[in-house]
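From the pipeline queue, job 12 of 40. The input is one protein chain; the requested action is below.

Action: predict structure.
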Amino acid sequence: MAGVDEVGRGCLAGPVFAAAVILNSNINTKGIKDSKKISFKKRILLSKYIKKNSIYAVGSASVEEINKINILNASLLSMQRALKKLKHKPAIAYIDGIFAPKNVNMKFKTFIRGDEKITCIAAASIVAKATRDLFMIKLSKKYPKYCWNKNFGYGTTDHLHGLKKYGVTKYHRKKFKPIHKILMRSTRETQ
């Protein structure tokens, strides 16, 4: 079976990422749990361990896709991409949440809070979150004023302060409320 989870739905900036993970039968699952309950350092180490001892794939949906098709559909698209990239087709995909991606041509089952209950989904959440965190840290080098290296694109005080002071970047999700408000205010001021 493959566990599937996405990360970054609630962020104000950056793509949404998903991972699909088929754990090897001999993997030590101690410590594999919901990625939100693990420190950054431990998440990176666990992600490396999972990737070394599993079949996995990562998919993402860009900010442009999020702006065009909305965050839910972009999340499902990132899951679909992760599943389609898997080198081995699983008998079934266990998906975190209540929605499943379309056009994956395999059996699936959805689980509310699956990342808290099912190890392969928790493993997927760790791989997806570690991948996205590292992407946002790299992106933060180009845009240091938003503190993405610490907040990973979530709407923290530092991030919101950066938005108010320096404006919106191409990596911000234009339809998300705080970003939309800033853009609307800018439009009114230029008229």
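Job complete. The CA atoms of residues 23 and 54 lie 5 Å apart.
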